């Protein structure tokens, strides 16, 4: 069974920061881009962004562009999501996500893993 483990969520005030981590297993190697998606209560899942497995380039949803940064530690097979300037609308469960479209990864198919980590932005 493929599992990725997310960590780093929590409660933060608006304007604050959090850093999420995804411990990617070896079975998630068959993807073009790895990153994050999120789901908020009553809303559809939203892709957040990803980092390319080939050249390390990143793609972000417009809603997080300029505030979130995805990076990877290949030696540790870990992907991080640095979230700054958090807003209440960022409140969601965040999942490590594998994206499969090489040219437009955030628009193509994807799979999300694990139980996710809860991020709550509230004063």
Secondary structure elements and their pairing?
Blueprint: E1 5-7, E2 10-12, E3 18-23, E4 33-39, E5 46-52, E6 58-60, E7 68-73, E8 78-83, E9 92-99, E10 110-121
Parallel strand pairs: 2-10
Antiparallel strand pairs: 1-3, 3-8, 4-5, 4-9, 5-6, 7-8, 9-10
Keywords:
single chain, 123 residues, mainly beta, six-stranded mixed β-sheet, four-stranded antiparallel β-sheet, 50% strand
Short description:
The chain has 123 residues and is an all-beta fold. It has strands at 5-7, 10-12, 18-23, 33-39, 46-52, 58-60, 68-73, 78-83, 92-99, 110-121.
3D architecture notes:
It is built from no helices and ten strands. The chain is mainly β and 123 residues long. The strands form two sheets. Strands 2-10-9-4-5-6 form a six-stranded mixed β-sheet, with no helix packed on it. The protein has a four-stranded antiparallel β-sheet with strand order 1-3-8-7, with no helix packed on it. The chain is globular.
């Amino acid at each position: 069974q493929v599992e990725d483990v997310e960590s780093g969520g929590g409660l933060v005030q608006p304007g604050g920061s959090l850093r999420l981590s995804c411990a990617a297993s070896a079975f998630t190697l068959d993807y073009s881009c790895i990153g994050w998606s999120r789901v908020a209560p009553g809303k559809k899942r939203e892709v957040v962004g990803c980092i390319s497995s080939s050249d390390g380039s990143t793609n972000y949803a417009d809603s997080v562009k300029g505030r979130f940064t995805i990076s990877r530690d290949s030696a540790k097979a870990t992907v991080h999501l640095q979230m700054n300037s958090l807003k209440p609308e960022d409140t969601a469960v965040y999942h490590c996500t594998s994206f499969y479209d090489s040219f437009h990864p955030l628009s193509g198919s994807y799979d999300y893993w694990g139980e996710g980590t809860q991020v709550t932005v509230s004063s």
